[in-house]
Amino acid sequence: MATVDATTETGKAAAPPAPAGNFSGADLSLRALLFAATLSGLVLLVTAKQTEIIPIALLPRLTFGPNDAKFQDSPALIYLLVALCVTCLYSLLTAVSSLRFVAGSVSTTKKLFLLLVLDVLYAAIMASATGSAGGVAWIGLKGNSHTRWNKICNIYGKFCRHIGGSAVVSLIASIILVLLAILNAYSLYHRSR
Amino acid sequence: MATVDATTETGKAAAPPAPAGNFSGADLSLRALLFAATLSGLVLLVTAKQTEIIPIALLPRLTFGPNDAKFQDSPALIYLLVALCVTCLYSLLTAVSSLRFVAGSVSTTKKLFLLLVLDVLYAAIMASATGSAGGVAWIGLKGNSHTRWNKICNIYGKFCRHIGGSAVVSLIASIILVLLAILNAYSLYHRSR
C-alpha cells in the first residue's frame, strides 16, 4: 500500500505545471453531460410521431381521415435535429480529447483556445436551433389568433410532449456549452495571470 | 512639427506593455458595427406595422374587414425586440470600455476575461432570438400545409420585409458577437503564451 501511495505521490510531482488540472475534470463531466443531453434530445425528436383520425372540413360535408404529425414536417425541427446531431458528435470527440487532458499527456494553451472557439460556435448553433424549434413549438402549443394559426397540441398531445422535451433538453445543452466556454475562458485566464 | 512627432513617439514608448493593443482597435470597430446592426434591427422591427383590408370568412357570407399586422402579435418577435434592446445597450457600454482600452488607461487580463464571458452570453441570447424570430418568419413566408398554417406574407408584404430584414440584421449581430468572443479569446491566449 505504501509503494502505491508513493507512486501516486511521485506521479503527482512529476506532472507538468498544470494549475488548470482541476478544471479538466469539470470540463470532462460537462462534456459527458452534454453528450447525454444531446443524445436524449435526439431520441425524443426522432420518436416524435403520432397518427390521429381528425376531421377534415371538405365542404359541403365533413369527412374524417388519418393525419400524421412528424418532425420532418417543420424546417425548424429538421434544423434542431441537425444541430443536435453535430453537437452530439462534437461532445463525443472533445470528451476523448478532454480525457487526454486529464491523463496529462496533452495540455497546451493552444488546445484550450481552440476548444474555446469551438465551444462558442457550437453554443451559438445550439441556441439558434433551440430558439427556432421553441418558437414553432410555442405556435403549436398556443396557436396565434392574429394570423389564424390554429394550435395543434390539443390533437397531437404525445407529439407535442416529445417536441417540448426535445426543446428543453436542447436548452440545457446550450447552457452547458456556454458554461464550457466560460470554463475554458477561465482556464485560459488562469494561465495568463 | 518635430516636437509633435517627438511627443507622439514618447507617448508610444510610455504606453504599458500591451501586445493586445492592436486587437483593441478591431474590438472597438466590431462593437461599433454591433451597435449599428442592433439599432437598425430595432428600427426595422418597431416600424413593422401594416393594415390591410382582407376577406374574413364568416359563413354563410364573406365579409371584408381591416386587419393589423404588428410585431406585438408574436411572442417570438417580442423576444427579438428585448434581445436587440439589451444587446444594443451592451454594445454601447462595452464600446466605451473598449475606448478606454485603446487609450491605454485600463487593459487588464481580468477585464478581457469578463468581456469574453459577457460576449459569449450575449451571443447565445442573440442567436436564440434570431432563431425563434426566423422560425416564425419562415412560417409566415412559406406557411405549413401539414398543420394548415397559412402564409401571411402574400397579404402583409411590407410587414414581412421589415421582419425579414430585422432577422437578417440580428443574424449579423450574432455573428459579430461570436467574432468578438473569438477575438477576446485570442487576445487572452496571446497573453498566456
UniProtKB/TrEMBL annotation, chains A, B:
GO terms for cellular component: plasma membrane. It comes from the Eukaryota. InterPro entries: CASP/CASPL, CASP_dom, CASPL. It is a multi-pass membrane protein. Coiled coil: none annotated. The keyword Lipid metabolism does not apply. Keywords: Cell membrane, Membrane, Transmembrane, Transmembrane helix. Pfam families: CASP_dom. It is found in: Cell membrane. Its main location: membrane. Residues 23-175 form the Casparian strip membrane protein domain. The chain crosses the membrane at residues 28-48, 76-93, 113-141, 162-186. Belongs to the Casparian strip membrane proteins (CASP) family. Homodimer and heterodimers. This is CASP-like protein. The lineage of its organism: Eukaryota, Viridiplantae, Streptophyta, Embryophyta, Tracheophyta. The gene is gb18881.
